[in-house]
Description:
It contains 5 helices and 21 strands.
Amino acid sequence: MAGERDDIIETGRPEGARRRTGAGAGIAVLLVLAAVTVSGLLSGPEPGEVPPSPPSRPSPSSAAPTGGASPALSDDPAPNVLRPRARHRDGREILDLVFPDGTAAELSYPAGLGLAELGVRPAYGGWPDGRPGLFRLLVAPSGGPERDGSPIRSMAERVTLWPPVSPAEGDVLLFDFAPWYVALHDSKEGMAFEDRLLWARGLRGRTTGNGYLVLTAGPPLRLARPGELFGEEPAGPQLWFGGARETLVVMAPMPGCDAGRIRMAMIGERRRFSAETCRDGVYVAASGERGHVERVIDGVRFRPGRTPVP
């Protein structure tokens, strides 16, 4: 994938909600591929370099309550998905969010929308500094890692390289940030081995006291700031609610948000009703059943949240 430095821009003034059903643009292929669960990975080992398959472990959604003001977590066994328990106030449900850059926000929505039950996962884009053409999106795959088969090789401590999930993409870097897994799906052309090492050695993850994953990167890696775009796609920290068979809702902090300048391919290409808006400094896009999507877009509200507990 090629790109120039000025591919990375910041959004402008706010606009209201806008609906669309057509396909997105920009980095559509990488974004769609990154949303694919890291399952069905085929073995392709090199002698002497194959670590064991990732073990099963409790997922973020099965973590114990942390006490205090942090929301308790459900005991749902679904891997790699956080289902925070909502508080209730004045007919609305309230969630304490932590985006993967550590930004905290309080999300509220009309009771009955069920966003907490959809489950939430982090996504975050980045690239080696000065080389935006190597932009890649990191996503926590909703199904967790594949338990069968073997990776190609170990790239660093708790980072493994896996064969492509589909013929349209390249290899997959899988990061083990217990209890979370994060996948980087490469393009079909693929990064150089040295660039893969930059990601494997430079990306770090920690889990907050209320179960969210926060990502950081050491130089020369650079993670996008809230509000940055790659082409027309949000590049900065995001939270994804739901998945392939459900309503999918994407939330991204976006200072000066202008929904008219943003095209999110993974929303538009689902061939379902979709809508988007800018609300309280957060970009919100959703696709799924029309009535549910409209209630989400019309009903969500945000306020600054508490600093997350490490």
